[in-house]
Design a protein that fits this description.
181 residues, 2 domains, single chain
């Protein structure tokens, strides 16, 4: 987020055109939501309509209390819908099931979350409340591969894609990718 707009656009274009990236993920969270919309729109224009752009809010915006609240999340989504966002990751504080459900139903932008959830039961709450589209379990936060696999199975039973997240890349990531192939 600290990159200038020109730098962000240049780096995104280079990633796609020169390095062969087929997807991008942008961080958002400026105090002025228009700054985030302008940045996403500029990257979208630079890379074109065929490159999926995911957006990650990390569960908070720089609002007064440090959290991106529901009255902020919904207007952002409404303004961002025309930018063809692949998903919005962690738009709200990670354990706020009801507010995620409201954002999910107020917008066409799919919601991704889960890297900060610590059990299959936590995922079950979001899934049962229809509050997410993509599950992002983290094997290190779920206390190992067994809980990760239970979470992946739960998501699979609801035909929800699972996208592995890891706070500590390395051995656990290798194990997950090897098992999930």
């Amino acid at each position: 987020m600290s990159n200038s707009l020109d730098s962000l656009v240049m780096q995104s274009s280079e990633a796609v055109q020169e390095q062969g990236f087929r997807r991008l993920k942008l961080k958002v969270g400026h105090a002025n939501l228009s700054d985030d919309i302008v940045r996403i729109a500029a990257v979208r224009k630079a890379v074109g309509p065929d490159i999926p752009i995911a957006v990650d809010a990390n569960g908070k915006w720089e609002m007064g209390n440090g959290k991106w609240d529901l009255p902020t999340a919904i207007p952002f989504c409404k303004r961002a819908e025309d930018l063809d966002i692949f998903w919005l990751e962690e738009p709200l504080w990670f354990d706020d099931v009801e507010s995620h459900r409201k954002v999910f139903h107020a917008s066409s932008i799919p919601i991704a979350l889960g890297e900060q959830l610590y059990s299959v039961d936590a995922f079950a709450k979001f899934i049962s409340r229809d509050a997410m589209c993509y599950a992002q379990p983290d094997v290190t936060r779920l206390a190992g591969i067994s809980e990760y696999l239970r979470t992946a199975d739960l998501a699979y039973c609801h035909r929800m894609p699972v996208l592995h997240m890891s706070a500590t890349w390395g051995r656990f990531t290798f194990i997950c990718h090897s098992i999930m192939k």
